[in-house]
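Most newcomers find our protein records easier to grasp once they have seen one. Read left to right, the backbone structure tokens trace the chain's path through space. Once this layout is familiar, the rest of the handout is easier to follow. The record below serves as our worked example for the rest of this section:


***
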Amino acid sequence: MFKKFDEKEDVTGATQLKSSVQKGIRKKLIENYPYLEPHLEEILPKKENFKVIKCKDHIELLADHLGVDKGAIKFILNGSSIMCPGLTSPGAKLTPQVPKDTVVAVMAEGKEHALAIGLMSMSSEEIQSINKGNGIESLHYLNDGLWHLAEKPLN
């Protein structure tokens, strides 16, 4: 069910896509999945750039993340929820127009990989304006129980 993902073994490269390529991807998605069109702006906002992460076995992932400042890292790795000030400080990256109850990858300032997966407790606009309290509920973080479960071989 889970496979440990190793950058050195599984990822072959990552590329920031040009806006024309991003537009083509959105167009192709609508052609192939017409019922997705009303929701596409929520999934791949036009104002946000995304990367293609290339992996072994011809797998490509589209990625967009929220980012926290360096001060939040130790708390997140202990299982804490992500507080609004950690998402709005100068070292953080708060993607606009992310609605409440969206599952997001949480990146850390100066780090290449996500350190947590969380559920937005409020929208990114609310996080920006209120700027206190719990912004993202932590669902999974590096070295938690699920992480260690993935390390055990399945019988």
Remarks:
- The first helix runs from residue 7 to 10.
